[in-house]
Amino acid sequence: MKKLKTIAIATTMLIAGTTISFAQDKGGHAHGAPHGGNVQTAGDYHIELLVKDGKMMVYLLDGKEKTLSNKGVTGTVMLQFADKTSATVTLTSMGDDHFVVSNDKAGTFTSCVVTMKVNGKTATAKFKAEKKATAMYQCPMKCEGDKTYSEAGKCPKCGMALAEMKKKTEEHKHKEG
After folding, report:
1. Which end of the chain is least crowded, N or C, by CB within 10 Å?
2. In angstroms, what CA-CA distances link 90 with 46, 47, 78?
3. What is the pTM of this model?
4. Which residues are 150's β-sheet partners?
5. How does strand 38-42 pair with strand 121-134?
6. 161 near 154, Cβ under 8 Å?
């Protein structure tokens, strides 16, 4: 009897572990991005966010990550910026398969939440900015100590050309989160 209980408990734990594993894989697996953006699971759907040339585009995808029509779909995007400001923007449908975000700062968000209403259901996805390397410059004579600059130029004290330093990360390119 004790052996039977042990087997039953082990089987239950195995099934629970497998279920948890599948749930984690479903939410965290690498998504296909049909338009070259970043894809996040949003309930029964997926949402692809693409930032290109400072413009933000949003695509609604089905469970198999195929692009769906934007007909009858509405949505908003809440944008958070590095300067601690935020903006909520209504998605504007473009063509027959995507939306654009009309906000001059949209391409520089640090995080955002896209919410779409599809066939009476709400699909929500969160995205965070991906870190990308940006060049930092410093006077080679260090006449200003460890002061750095984000752009090449000349040292204001000695006039020497600023030298590029090791890469520092800054949030601008976007990724699912």
Report:
1. N
2. 19, 15, 9
3. 0.60
4. none
5. unpaired
6. yes
Two tokens, residue 128: 């965070």
The continuous run of DSSP H or E covering 25 comes out as helix 2-28
Length of the chain as a residue count: 177
Exposure string for 85-121, b = 16+ CB within 10 A, e = fewer: eebebebebeeebbbbbebeebbbbbbbebbbebeee
Residue-wise pLDDT for 117-159, tens only, equals: 999 999 999 999 876 556 788 899 998 888 888 788 899 999 9
Tell me the pLDDT tens digit for each residue of 11-62.
444 444 333 333 323 344 467 789 999 999 999 999 999 998 888 999 999 9
Task: Return d(Cα 39, Cα 60) in angstroms, integer.
Answer: 10
